[in-house]
Amino acid sequence: MEKYRKEQRDRLVALAFVSILLMLIYGPLASWFVAADRFVFDRFAGLIKSAPPANALIVSIDPKRRSESDVLRQYGALIQAAKQARARRIILASPPQISTEQDLPAWAATLSTGTPVYVPSDNRLADVASKSGTLRLQPDSDGVLRRLVLWNLDGGVMTPSLPLSIAFDNPEFANDPRMSAIDDSIYLAAYAPVERLNPEQILASDFDRRSLAGKTILIDADMPLAGSVAVLPSGQFVTRSEASAALLGDIENHKAIIAPPWIRALEWLTPALLAIVAVLFLPDRKRQDILMIAVITVIAMLLIEALLLFVGRVRLDLGRPILIYVGTSLLAWWLAGGVRKAAINAYKKGSDFLSAGRLEPAFAEFRRCDATETVAAAMYKLSLAFEDQAKPERAEAVLNWMKKTQGSQRAAGNKLTMSGNSGTPQRLGRYVIERKLGRGAMGAVYLARDPRINRAVALKVIPIEKEFEDEELEEARLRFFREAESAGRLTHPNIITVFDCGEDKHLAYIAMEFLPGIPLTQYTDPKKLLAPSRALEICARTAEALDYAHNQGVIHRDIKPANLLYNPREDMLKISDFGVARLTDNNRTKTGIVLGTPMYMSPEQLNAENLTGHSDLFSLGVTLYELLTGEVPFRANNIAVLMTKITTEDPSPVSNRRAGIPPSVDAVLFKALAKRPENRFASGAEMAIALRNCAKYAST
């Protein structure tokens, strides 16, 4: 119920937040946030080249080298040359300014005859030119020219823009359905350079003017860059002629970027829909799920905008909707942090209550947690504890909670069938054995099922009567159950939970949480090493779990890659074999060789001294060394030489053996592998902090 109220409260907070965002971004602060729309559009538009008019060229007169009268004369000469060459059309996008006091030049009389000449309507030459249209290049507030208004109110009359007026004379354009579907503007992208000729070249006597036939000629007195009047979304500076050529080409080639009325409606609808989705589906999710959904949604919106722009030449501004969605996602991520922190605290409290035997408070705390595998394992352990206290109704309540939260699919997924494999017992205690998972130094591990709840468990089975002589058997049996009971008190996300222990058919067994992971021995092959940062993080988690166990008075005694299980898909680590190592400690085979793996043992463990948690930290240092390099730090052909190296020699620095490992790791390993326990890290928590500091500078 508390979790439900928290979800409802988070949704209300998200709804209030997104409502304020919508009002601000599309209201009084719209002029600020519209930059998000422009930013996204500019990134894509800069990749789209405009389609220049067919057979177009620009002729620019250099005004610095001529007087005003010379410029006017050259305009006339160029217009006459173009008409004589039977050019398709002449465009004066930036004609000379002639005041009303001045007489029109003689060549102005020729503008209305022969090849059509197009002039902006605000120029005096428009009175005598063949055609005219408005050419108002109005950049946005950030100085970038992104659009051209197609129709302008001029003297109470709606007049077309100059590019549109020119295109109207093109019979192929007259029936363009795209232009009839747009609102009132077209948009610019990147300028595709148009061929340029200088006036002297055209007016030279040896120039073949027949090459001008059928061409669109733009004449101006604006030199490239120096005469630019606007900057495009692509960052290019363009003159009035270049901008006109780009717009005219897009219109005539049916490549104009448009924004139909339905697009405008969609731009208003999209942020509202995204806000609803964010409020309904984000607040009750985990942080990693929120990030994944947010990233996928943002990428999808960017792809939609890009596809519409590149394929359909339609502008859909999604910058502000993306901003709103990202803002709401960040809020949901922050709120989820509170949920996660509360769940972690509840899990820790429940674990402490369970260890202290206070089962009812433990049940209450565990129910506040998310239904994860770790919590399910703790709940399963709680149900067994209720059974031990002769409270079957409470045990049943815990099992019912597990069935409800884990779901029928999970229960069905845990159903196992009898194997009947030769040599494999079919049942130990109440556990039904499915198959063998592996074998250790003293026994095998089986995948089994608790029929009461159809829950998979891992059974560590030890033929205790075969491993110990008669005089040692009773002591070993007592030690086994005592250590299993100690391990059973451990409830930590990075420690395999011990549920139960017993003896049946002369076999001692421990029922543990089943983790579908792989031992870290898979990553000690030099060809399959983990990234240094990942190996450091895994060992940091191990150190934290060991710190928890040591504070509970439990020492593992056999930390090595084989006892660290890792699920890379879920990035989950678990320490296994708590409660088993003590049974094998000091037990010798018939040949007198110490069982276990001596290369991971601390000097005091090899010398059969009393052990503390510092011994586990030494073994963890050896494990980290192997995960980073693919080799253990101490190697020898026989146990005597190995013991000498472990107790007297220092390992070579790992930073010299593999790239991407910072020198700080050498210092951490030097301290972890110190020969005397008091010279090592004071605790696993201290070692974890040091490892994570190193991970910040390690390669990923």
What layout of secondary structure does this protein have?
Blueprint: H1 2-25, H2 30-45, E1 56-60, H3 68-84, E2 89-94, E3 117-120, E4 131-133, E5 147-149, E6 151-154, E7 157-160, H4 162-168, H5 177-180, E8 185-187, E9 195-197, H6 199-203, E10 216-220, E11 230-231, E12 237-238, H7 240-252, E13 257-258, H8 261-281, H9 287-310, H10 319-355, H11 359-366, H12 373-388, H13 392-413, E14 427-428, E15 431-439, E16 444-450, E17 455-462, H14 464-467, H15 470-488, E18 498-504, E19 507-513, E20 518-519, H16 532-551, E21 564-567, E22 572-575, H17 581-584, H18 603-606, H19 613-629, H20 639-648, H21 664-672, H22 684-695
Parallel strand pairs: 1-9, 1-10, 2-3, 2-10, 3-4
Antiparallel strand pairs: 5-8, 6-7, 8-13, 11-12, 14-15, 15-16, 16-17, 17-19, 18-19, 20-21, 21-22
